[in-house]
Amino acid sequence: MTGKKAVVMLSGGLDSATVLAIAKRDGFEPYAITFRYGQRHALELEAARRVAACQGVVDHLEVEIDLRMIGGSALTADIDVPVGRTADEMESGIPVTYVPARNTIFLSFALAWAEVLEASDVFAGMNAVDYSGYPDCRPEYVAAYEEMANLATKAGVESDSRFRVHTPLMQMSKAEIVRQGLELGVDYGLTSSCYNPSAEGEACAACDSCQLRLQGFKDAGTSDPIRYLSGVGSGT
Question: Of the candidates 147, 62, 156, which has an alpha carbon nearest to the alpha carbon of residue 109?
Fold first, then answer.
């Protein structure tokens, strides 16, 4: 590693686990940050701890924010998670699983920690290919946030270095992400992506996130090692 610090947003899902491995590959000392925000799929927090431990982060910060107070999403309110949607349906409009301003809130915490750590780099798993319905996963959003970060912080104003938000998965398909992670030794059996898992941690196989994940592994020519209720994947 180069000794250069980076804050990595780690949800415990497939994408963020891959981003963490990429940050390490690129020579950064990773400081992982995870959010307990009232999400119905809180099992992902356990996955984030497993991934952080496996990949050897320098520190792992868990931040608690109760976005259930705001609601407005199937992940934080009493709204059904969509299941069994077709690819065309997933690409039509902003899904009800969108959490209002989530990435803006999360990036703000990551930015604050980076400033305290005297780090200029934040890594995040936004993807505009498989999650194009989310407005805060677009390249123009990330560019705008990065510009704001350099205007709104003491470090951005007084330092010669500039904050950078790295989104290495932005233009990658799910299959490309899986292949990249496997090349870097990511253990996807430790991750959790499902929006509506069982109490035992089994993925539902029917929500948008599960379907995209399963298709990604299929297109990558390999099986998904996690457990699914329907018996798909190799981890059952």
Answer: 62
pTM greater than the 0.85 cutoff: yes
Domain boundaries, the chain: 4-192
CA distances from 89 to 83, 86, 92, 166, 195 (A): 11, 5, 5, 29, 17
Q: How confident is the model at residue 130 (pLDDT cuts 50, 70, 90)?
A: low
Q: Is the pLDDT of residue 20 over 80?
A: yes
Q: Domain 4-192: which CATH class?
A: alpha beta
